[in-house]
Amino acid sequence: MSTKLTELLGIEYPILQGGMAWISDAALASAVSNAGGAGIVSTGGRTTAYTRDEIRRCRTLTEKPFGVNVMLMAPNKDEIVAVICEEKPAFVTLGAGNPVPYFETLHAAGIKVIPVVPNVKLAKRVEAKGADAIVVEGMEAGGHIGSICTMPLMTQVIPEVSIPVVMAGGFADGRGLAAALTMGAAGVQMGTRFLVAEECPVHPNVKQKLIEAVDTDSIVTGATIGGAVRGLRNKFAEEFVALEYSGKATKEELLEKATGTNKLAAVDGDTENGMIQAGQSLMPLTRIEPVKAIVEGIVNEARETLRAAARISL
User: How far, rounded to the nearest angstrom, does the alpha carbon of residue 174 sit from its chain's CA centroid?
Assistant: First the structure.
C-alpha cells in the first residue's frame, strides 16, 4: 500500500499511531512499526531522561522507522527537542503550540518534521516553512481538539497543500483509512484504536471501559475555556462539564480541576475520577488483541473497501 507517506517514512502501510501522553511508549510504538505502520513515542508530561531512554528502548525493539511526539505546551519542550536531535528518530510530530521555530534544528539533525494542524491557514503556513508532511486533526479525535470536523478538513485542506497530509480524528478501521485515501490523504493517524492493543500500557481498567463504550459515550470538556478535550463520559467528565457551564468556576479553577486527571485514568486506572481521553469512534473497540492483528485487519478492510469502490458503476 504505497502513498506519499509510506515513501516519505519508508513504511509499509500509511498508518501513524498517535502520540498519547502517559501511554505511547516504546513497547507500543515499536509494535506498530513492526506491524508496518509508524509508531510514535509520546513525551507529554515526561522528562528528558525518559525521552532518551524510550527512544533507545524502541531501537532495541524494532529496526523499522518510528517517531517521537512533542507537546509544545510542555515547559521542558526545548530540552526534549535537544534530546530528540541527539537520538535522531526518523520523524517528529509537534502539536499544541507553534512548531515552526523547531523546523531548522530538527532538519539539521536529519529528522523529518510533521506538525499537527487544525485548519487550512496553519497547514499552508507550516508547508511554506518547510514541513515534510502534516497531521490534520479533526475534532472527533481524543484529547485536545480543534473546532472543525475531519470531513470538512479533508475537503478543505488536502487541495490546498502539496506535502503529504495525514488525517486524524475518528479513524478506527479500514473503511476510514480507505475514505481518507480516496479523499486524497496520504494516510491516517490513529490513537484510540491502539488503546486496546495488547502492547498498549494504558491501565486495564481503561481498556475495559473502552470495550464497553457505545457511540454516544464521547464527551468534550473545557470547550468554553479554550482547552477542549475529548474523552469518555464518566463521573469526572460529567461533573466538570456541569461546573463549566454553571458559571460558578473560573478558567483557572477549571484548569486546576483537570490537572493530572489524564494520568489518574491512564496510569492509575481510576476510570471514574480520571479523564479517559479517547476519540468518537468507539464501536470498533471490541476486544484486546495484538497490534499486528489490529493493523492487518485495518489494512485488509481498507483494501477490500477500495476494491468495492472501484466496482461502483459510473
Answer: 17
